[in-house]
Amino acid sequence: MKKFRSRSARMNVMHFRVLVMRYLRQIFTNPGQFLPLLLEAPVMLFILTIACRANAFTDKDVSQANITIFILMMMAAMMGILNSYREICKERDVLAREVFGGLDTSAYALSKFCVLALVGIVQCTVLLFGTALYSPFNFSAPVPDFLLCLAALILTNLSVTAIGLFLSALLKKSESAILPVLLIIIMQVVFSDSVLVLDGAAGYIKYITPSAWGIAVFGNVCGLNGWLPAELFPHDMFENNPLLSLAVLALITALFVFLTIVTLRRRYRSKD
């Protein structure tokens, strides 16, 4: 077994920059990849305008406002997982050759994440601005509250993107990811602490679910808990400080990026 030669930090940074530019070029020069990414946010925004009431927040309709936030967060999460779950496993053969030639797996994983993060940031910004134009959130402090909600939407997208990359690093073929991806999406829906009231053991799973933390920021900023008596709308996570929820989402993102790097290093640490 031949161990790969370690590279300097300067070389790894160079690898990272080259890979980022390569992936961006691949996206913008491949219509089959660029058009779906371009159309995802507008299509989802169109669906949201059909499914949600425009005056949900101005009328303090807690049910409709909760649905709007839930759909918004699920769209961010789904864009994250759909953009990332094939990114590594579809390049297995190419990656093996490049790593054998000296490519650093950390630079590879980080370049993948950063490009997908850029895509996610643009998509989530379009999604939130479009939603705000259609259904004003009626924030008490418009600019800070809007930025907190945008950060929640982006970090939810990034955390699920990181989970998708980790899944892609574990699997050899993208076809094998169908069931895990389905489970991740179901988890974001069921344990989002939005459409269902979670008790018992299920109530603890929401604390490791990115969508629940993202929804908690919206719930707190919009003051949903104050629209109805607590016994009619029992969402304890909405009482969390938004900065705490954002910090948890950032931690989940960093954890799964780290796990992706570790997984790739273990897989490609030596070559026959």
What report would you give on this structure?
The longest helix is centred in the middle third of the chain and has 30 residues, at about 105-135. Helix 2 packs parallel to helix 5 and helix 6 (about 140-170) runs parallel beside helix 10. Strands 1-2 form a two-stranded antiparallel sheet. The chain is an all-alpha fold and about 270 residues long. The model is unreliable at about 1-5 (pLDDT under 50). The chain is built from ten helices and two strands. The chain has helices at about 10-30, 30-50, 60-85, 90-100, 105-135, 140-170, 180-190, 200-205, 210-220, 240-265, and strands spanning about 1-5, 270. The termini are close together.
- Give the rounded overall mean pLDDT: 87
**Main sheet specs:** 2 strands, antiparallel
User: Going across the major beta sheet, what is the strand order?
Assistant: 1-2
Bulk shape = elongated
What is the element string, with H for helices and E for strands? EHHHHHHHHHHE
Poorly predicted runs of 5 or more residues: 1-5
The count of helical stretches stands at 10
Oligomer: single chain
Helicity, in percent? 55-70%
Structural class: mainly alpha
Count of distinct strands: 2
Strand percentage: under 5%
